[in-house]
Amino acid sequence: MNRTTLSLIAGTAALAAVTAFAAIDSPSASGAAAPQAAARLPVERTSLLCPAPSTSDVADTAYTSFTPVTEGAGSGGKARLQAAVGQSADGTDGGKGGKGAGKKSDEPVLTPKAPGTPATGEISGADAPALVGTADGRFASGWTVQETTEVAVGSGRGLLGVNCTGADTEFWFPGAGTAAGRTDYVHLTNPDDSAAVVDIELYGKDGAIKSPLGENLTVKPHASEPILLSTLTDERQTDLTVHVSVRSGRVGAAVQALDDKEGGDWLAAAADPAGSQVLPGIPKDATDVRLIAFAPGDDDADLKIRLASPSGLITPAGNETLHVKAGMTTAVDLGDVTRGEAGSLFLTPTDQSVPVVAALQVVRGKGDKKETAFIPATAAVGTRATAADNSAKGTTLALTAPTGTATVKVTASAGSEGGTAVTKTYTIKSGTTQNVDVPVPSGLKGTYALTVEPVSGAPVYASRTLAATEGGVPAFTVQTLPNDRGTVSVPTTEQDLSILQK
C-alpha cells in the first residue's frame, strides 16, 4: 500500500469523525462557541404489549388507546393493536392455561383515527389473546393503551387494569404470592422475530427460593406465555418478590394476582431499585394497606416510612421505619393508614442509601366484599404522562410532590365518542398528596384520557384510580403514571474542520 493511499484513508477517517468530535469538543480546545443543548423531539415509533386479560368465561375487557397531541410530531403514521400470533413455548398455538395467546388474527382490536381522541375496542371471554401494538409517525409520541377487565364472579372477581408497556430485559415485582387462595401468573410477551430466553427468580421471607423450572424459559417470537408461579415452587408464601431477567431478546412482563376471596388485579413492574421510592395514590377509603419491599443487593436497607397526606408528611404510628434484609422479601401491615384522606407512601433511607424495590397491596371493603389492587413504586411524571379509559364518574387522579411544591397542568382529552378537551392547572404543596378535582371534557361522550404535565417546581408523582361498585363489592384498579417517554434527546451537531489540523 503506497503513501498516497494511506493519506487518503487517514483523511477519510478524519472527515468521518468530524461530526462526532464537533458535538463534544470543548470551546476552550477548539475555539468554537459552546454547543447548544440537545433538542427534545417526538419519538417516531413506539411498541406496546398487553397481556392476555383473563381465564374467566365472564370476563369483559375494554381497550382504550390514546396519543396526546405533540408539538413537532409528523403528519403521517398509524397505530394498530392486534393479537400476538406466535407459538407458545410448548410448540402449540396459544399460551399455557388456554390463554389463546397464539390466536391468529389480522384484525386489529382497535385502530386510532387521530391523536387527541381516544379509540376503544372490546373483547369478551376467556380466549382473549395477548396483544402487540405498534405506532409510528404522529401516533407514536406518548402512545398509551389501557386494558381494563371486569370479572363478575370467581377468583379475582372485580376490576383489573393495566397499562400496556414496552419490552425490556429486567423487571421486579414485589407483592406476588403463592399462598393458599392465590393464583398468580407472570405473563411474558415477546414482540420480536426471534425467541427470548427468560429466567424467573423468586425471593421470599427467608431469601431466594429454589425454582429450577423458572430457568431458561423460552418465549417464542410474537407469542405470549403465562407462567403460574405455584408451578415453579412448592413453597406457599404470602409475600414474594419476582425477578424477571432476560438472557437473550426482550419481553413485556406483568403479574396477574388473583385471590379467591379478595378479588385481584394486575401487578405492574416496580420502579428500578433505588435508595428512595414513591408509591402514589392510596385510596382514601382503603381498609388495609400492606407494604412489600426487597433489597436486591448485598446490604440490608433501613427505610424511613412517611405518608404524604393532604396536609403534609406524617409518620405512621408504630411503623416509623422498616428494616429490609438483603435478598429477603419484607412485608408490613399499615392498616387503614390513610384514615379517610388522600395519601402516598414515601420511603427514604434512615442513614446509608441502599437500593430497594417496593409495592403496596391495597384492600377496599370488608368481610366478603373485599377487593384488591396494587401500587408499585414508580418514577416521576417527568415531562408528561397519560392515563386512558376515564369516565365522568369513578375516576380519581392523585398527585404528590414529596420534596417540594410543584405546579401541574392536567388536560382531559376529547371523548372517544364526542366532547371538547378541557385543561386545569393545580399547585401541589411540598410533602402533600392531593386527589385533584379531575377535569371532564365538555359534552363528554364515551371515555377520555387525562394527560399530566408538570409546569414548574419539584418532581411530581401520580396515579389514577378507576372504581365501580359491582354486586356490593367496591371494585377498583390503580395505575401509576411514570413518564410516557414520548420525546427523545437529539444532540445538536455542527462541522468543525479544525479537527483535521490536530
Concise account of the structure shown:
The chain has 502 residues and is mainly beta. The protein has helices at 3-24, 27-30; strands spanning 39-42, 45-50, 59-66, 79-83, 119-124, 131-136, 144-151, 158-163, 170-176, 182-190, 196-204, 207-209, 217-219, 223-228, 240-248, 252-259, 263-267, 277-282, 288-294, 301-309, 312-314, 321-324, 329-335, 343-349, 357-364, 371-376, 385-390, 395-401, 406-412, 418-420, 422-428, 432-436, 442-445, 448-457, 461-470, 473-480, 487-490.
| Rg of Cα set | 24 Å
Question: Which structural class best describes the helix and strand composition?
Answer: mainly beta
Shape, per Cα inertia axes: globular
Task: Tally the helices.
Answer: 2
Sheet with most strands:
5 strands, antiparallel
List keywords for this structure.
502 residues; mainly beta; five-stranded antiparallel beta sheet; 2 helices; 37 strands; 5% helix; globular; disordered N terminus
